[in-house]
Amino acid sequence: MPDTQNTIMNQSEQRELRYEPASIEEKWAARWSADPAMYAAESHQSRLPKYYVLEMLPYPSGVLHMGHVRNYAIGDALARHMWMRGYNVLHPMGWDAFGLPAENAAIKNNVPPREWTLRNIAQMKVQMARLGFSYDWSTEVTTCLPDYYRWNQWFFLKFWEQGLAYKRKSKLNWCPECATVLANEQVVNGCCWRHEETVVEQREMEQWFLRITKYADELLDGIEKLEGWPDKVRTMQRNWIGRSVGVMVDFALDGEVGAAGGKITVFTTRIDTIYGATSILLAPEHAMVADFTANDGHLSAKVQGLIREQAKAREAGDIGGIEKHGVFTGRYAVNPFSQEKIPIWVANYILADYGTGAIMSVPAHDDRDYEFAKKYDLEIRIVVLPRRTGEAPTEHNHHASEPLLPYTEKESLLINSGEYNGLANDDAIEKMAAHAERQGFGKKTVTYRLKDWGVSRQRYWGTPIPMIYCGKCGIVPVPESQLPVLLPENVNITQQGGSPLSRVPEFVNVKCPKCGGAARRETDTMDTFVDSSWYFYRYTSPKLDDRALDTNAVGYWFPIDQYIGGVEHAILHLIYSRFWTKFMRDLGIVKNAEPAERLFTQGMVIKDGAKMSKNKGNVVSPDDMVAKFGADSTRAYSLFATSPDRELDWQETGVEGVHRFLSRAYRFVMRNAEAARRADGKSSAQELPPRVRAVQRKLHQTIQRVTEDFKGRWHFNTSVAAIMELVNDLYGTEDEIAAGKFPPALLADVLRRLVLLLAPFAPYLAAELWETLGEKGGILRHPWPEFDPALAKEDEIEYAVQVNGKLRGRVVMPADTAQPDVRAKALADEKVRVALDGKEVVKVIVIPGKLVNVVVK
Ligand SMILES: [Zn+2]
Ligand SMILES: [Zn+2]
User: Fold this and answer.
1) pTM, whole model, 2 decimals?
2) Of these four, 110, 183, 322, 441, which has the most CB atoms within 10 Å of its CB?
3) CB-based contacts of 245: which residues, under 8 Å, 6+ apart?
4) By the 8 A CB rule, do 459 and 470 touch?
5) Of the ranges 35-49, 212-226, 416-430, 787-801, which one carries the lowest mean pLDDT score?
6) 532, 55 in Cβ contact below 8 A?
7) Which of 434, 396, 431 is nearest to 415 (CA)?
């Protein structure tokens, strides 16, 4: 109907056509919440193909932020699309409910953490329901409840039985703000992962570790197969695991034998350069340094200075950029290959917790050693030369090819290296390592940057570690039959004086399960990353009370088909959960070796170029957006504004634009719904007017495009843009509709398919329009629209015509024009003929469907 007719519509009709998301969305939200089974998956015995789509579970802070909305809108669109494609979809949600904020809120507001957490969960569920997310709440998992965390405890006992949980005293990362230790993965640039401005301190403490390093190789090798994961995440994991292959070599101390055994062990990946080692460098906190400084106040003071410098650089998160300082100890070590005596120094850039805390310094072939040697005037001796094909170095020619120092390339040949002269470096590494092993002063070794996972936390709101200390029996695990070890309530929580549980006598004092004597419980709780390491398995059978999971259900649903979350978890959660999966596989309770087949990391939502934060006052509240523009517009905007892997700078005008588009779609369907309902479904063979044919073509092209996008490209921004163009083209046919030239059956078909296309992005609007079109069943499981390639094909194509690469004309011709005719038509174009005048055509290149390039002399 042409717009002019709006003027003759009465008031009530006008009102009917206004898109009012609040009333539509509230109506459908009420219907949907009355039918909680609508998003439920069929059991694992289903014959349907399965699809497990998962968004990372949130911490229940009490309020959703835009980052959540974006993350969930992506997962929700995908889940809805897969339902329409006929899959048995599992789309669960849960709560990463243990952790510090609840405890801090308890201290501040005097609310017990459990109450605070459960209240927040209830609030966030209301927000999620209002946004229309399609979660199956019957599988909800809340990690702070005993029916979940008892299985954390069960897994801990299994780790203990397998020798993969152990207690050890060591230097640990301590966040003063959190008042607890942190795992290495939770220290980011020297600061706490939760408190980006709080410098992490080092404290010597005893705590529990999980032996993740047992799986270091498998975690590394597995990355190769994770082709559905973003490259950046795979690279981050590879670097974090940090495998390097080398040799441990012992340098004997020259002279008297010290308490540390009379030798210094270094780790090197370049044993081929050992003849170029001109000093040994020790970390200031290397055990042997204490021996050297014991009776030397001057040296001791110098070393203390180096320790301080290193600590400062660590705090600044820039140990690589430290200004290098060192001090000579007055001692010497013996190079086991050359028997040469070389000086032992202490240097501030050598870390005690990396490798062995000692290195052989080869200044000619290492950047940092070179810088250090230059500063302290230590000898720099070239022992490898760039390798040239077929050339062995001799006394006479090696000066000619002397490299620029430091020369660190591995493609090299040895010189100044005794019997190894002339060997290529890879060959030399093999032979020298074998020699060292035979002589008993060396060992081939693989080292990792990855360290065991420290899981003890000195806080209250976490899973109690199920261990008991008995004076007679030592460490005794809590028997499985006594799980769960319940977290006591009404605990006086403060951040002072260590673990809050240690001040609860009725928790601490326990009978030893072995001897029955008086014993005490472990009072540390588990790192909350334990909770998230396996939660997604629990979704497949959340109510089981005799096992953590049902192996058959996991076998059907796993691996997760698509996991979606923030890239900030690339190392933390995603490495822990891969580890946990491998452990579960070794226990025989799951068969998959990796948790997720595909991973998608969405970009951050920012505002005015900066991260949203209360301090900056630039937080956009999802509730406000929903109140102003509706849930559909808010969600669709978060998908539409840019491609989902990019940062999204939130613009209210953008949400308004999406709202306008949805209004237009709504009005058009509403105006024509009556005609569409009356259409008899018979398609007529009549010739379509050009604009109607254009709409038909656009429809099929759009279906093709959106369908392709869901297969993995996920450029929903272009999908939604394509749907917008379709709606525009539809408005362009109002005259044809008014004149009865748009066949009603075709119009009905276009409208139905348009609504189906909208369903994953704007589910409320789609449900409303679907019903208005007279459709009976729900849209959620209605088959996704197919496209017809023949109808999607362009009738005519415009060719750009270039002469020597310069655009000279444009020629429109039928899409099925044969190549020789394309060429002839291009050359016949008036403007092209002018450009060709007086020149000789050498070649004509036709790129079908796009371009004709004429090469002339
Ligand atoms: Zn902290
Ligand atoms: Zn005992």
Assistant:
1) 0.83
2) 183
3) 269, 444, 445, 446
4) no
5) 787-801
6) no
7) 396
The Cα 154–Cα 547 span in angstroms is: 9
Mean pLDDT of the chain, nearest integer: 91
| Consecutive H or E run containing 149 | helix 146-161
Q: Within 13 Å and on the Cβ side, how many CA atoms surround 563?
A: 27
By CB atoms closer than 10 A (0-12, 13-18, 19+), residue 312 is middle
Nearest Cα neighbor of 228 from 562, 572, 576, 592 is 562
Helix H or strand E segment including 233: helix 231-241
Residue 180 Cα, ligand 1 centroid: separation in angstroms?
8
From the CA of 182, the nearest ligand is: 1
Q: Which ligand is nearest to the CA of 101?
A: 1
Question: Is 394 a residue whose pLDDT tops 70?
Answer: no
Tokens in use for 29? 């939200």
Q: What spacing in Å lies between the alpha carbon of 461 and ligand 2's midpoint? A: 28
Average pLDDT over residues 826-840: 89
* Distance from Cα 183 to the centre of ligand 1, integer Å: 11
Ion ligand 1: residue ranges with CB closer than 5 A: 175, 177-178, 192, 194-195
Q: In what order do the strands lie in the sheet with 50-55?
A: 88-90, 50-55, 562-566, 599-602
Residue of 97 and 191 predicted with greater confidence? 97
- pLDDT (average), residues 393-415: 72
One-letter amino acid for residue 473 of the chain: C
Is 563 a residue whose pLDDT tops 90? yes
Question: Who's near 696: CB < 8 A, 6+ residues apart?
Answer: 688, 746, 750, 791
Whole-number Å distance, alpha carbon 512 to ligand 2 midpoint, is 5
Q: Beta partners for 809?
A: 801
φ and ψ at 599, to 5 degrees?
-130, 140
Q: What percent of the chain has pLDDT over 70?
A: 95
Q: Please tell me the distance between residue 480's alpha carbon and the centre of ligand 2 in angstroms.
A: 17
Place of tokens 């979940």: 148
From CA 361, how far away is CA 343, in angstroms rounded? 10
What is d(CA 727, CA 734) in angstroms, rounded to the nearest whole number? 12
What are the backbone dihedrals phi and psi of residue 766, each rounded to the nearest 5 degrees, phi first? -60, -40
Place of tokens 């559905």: 228
Q: Which pLDDT value is given to residue 506?
A: 95
Q: Helix-strand-coil percent breakdown of the chain, rounded to 5? A: 45, 20, 35
Q: How far apart are CA 311 and CA 317, in angstroms?
A: 10
- 127-159 per-position pLDDT tens digit: 999 999 999 999 999 999 999 999 999 999 999
Residues 399, 403, 409, CA angle at the centre, nearest 5°? 135
